[in-house]
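Working notes for the structural subgroup meeting. M.R. asked for a predicted model of this chain before we commit to crystallization trials. I am recording the input and output together here so anyone reviewing the notebook later can reproduce the run.

Input as submitted:
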Amino acid sequence: MKILFYGTASYDKDSFTKELKDYPDVKIDFTETNLTPMTAPLARGYDAVCAFVNADCGAMTLEILSGFGVKLVLMRCAGFDAVNVEVAKDLGMKVTRVPAYSPEAIAEHAMGLALCANRRIHKGYIRVRENNFDLTGLVGVTLHGKTAGIIGTGRIGAALCRICKGFGMYVIGADLYPNQKLIDEEHVVDEYVDIKDGKVDYDSLYSRADLISLHAFLNEESYHMINDDSISKMKDGVIFVNTARGALVDSNALIRGIRAGKIGAAGLDVYEEENANVYQDREDEILGSSITARFCSFPNVVMTSHQAFFTKEALGEIARVTLDNAQAFAHGTDFVPRSVVC
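Returned structure, recorded in token form:
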């Protein structure tokens, strides 16, 4: 089984190479080049390609790969927005993903962003480096006794519920499929918002939560669920965190909410316009009036570059699941549960 690994970073090579000893039938060649229609011909002679969330797995890329005999696309991430699934189906290509990896890592990062933005830890650190020990402008709020609104209570959302409960917060969940176990057995969710006519009543969460964290899927219904209207319903000074999908949030609406003081602090690991920046070093470029520059101009906003998953444990799990799926494809055995896209 020969796999061309696109978009390789040093940590990708380290984590996959470490696991390869347990997969003697799998051979990987690494390239730093990302997967696009222009680079797809590099996969000539390979059985599969491995790509990440920032790859271009659109129709043209898939058609080129298929033309060179590639039958398997291994996405080493949970999301598969980058893949034109219908075209992959038509071409008879198999697409897999990593359905879950260290949900605690993402939940911990979400809380880290909330704490950093709320308590202005990033600004305090910079001040001390400059021998400025003034506290003016660094005041935050105590989370103990406040209300956390967790939108999406799957594995990651549930992990954050546990963290929030450990902080002594009242936890409200919002999910089309509430996890009653989190209420009855774990006691980490105090209540779920109502579901009316098959739709989640997010408004009641917006109006009550002091901290709102997104962990929802991105689809047609959830696209820009955070917009001018939803932000207007939130508490003044709310702490807002997004480690899920950038397009859940209308960036310009969020900027207006920050400027108006409705958003008291924001922690963003993802944002809608991030694709050109994800995992790229653009230090020598002047990005001008980019969305990133606008967000970073606010003292109460903390941004990271899609790194919520980025722990040793998560990288190891990504490697193992991806290689398990490659081996399953080669041997005609079962894929990892919930990993098959098409």
